């Protein structure tokens, strides 16, 4: 399974994709907020989003799976 993991701990500020969306490598898919800074999480490769595992307001730790690709 192709997974995108959080690169840091923080609160999900925005979710910019939904299941079924096509994303390109380097596209910001989630924005995390930590210490009043907004940090985009980018897709490591292109593909179709299978499942988004976080919602706005969720807290994630570094390494948590935030979405999966088909």
Automatic annotation (TrEMBL):
SUPFAM superfamilies: Single hybrid motif (SSF51230). This is Acetyl-CoA carboxylase biotin carboxyl carrier protein. Residues 1-70 form the Lipoyl-binding domain. Keywords: Biotin. PROSITE patterns: BIOTINYL_LIPOYL. It comes from Edaphobacillus lindanitolerans. InterPro entries: Biotin_Carboxyl_Carrier/Decarb (IPR050709), Biotin_lipoyl (IPR000089), Single_hybrid_motif (IPR011053). It comes from the Bacteria. Pfam families: Biotin_lipoyl.
């Amino acid at each position: 399974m192709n997974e995108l993991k959080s690169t840091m701990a923080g609160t999900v500020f925005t979710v910019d994709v939904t299941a079924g969306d096509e994303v390109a490598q380097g596209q910001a898919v989630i924005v995390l907020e930590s210490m009043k800074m907004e940090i985009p999480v980018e897709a490591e490769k292109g593909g179709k989003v299978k499942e988004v595992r976080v919602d706005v307001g969720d807290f994630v730790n570094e390494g948590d799976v935030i979405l999966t690709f088909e």
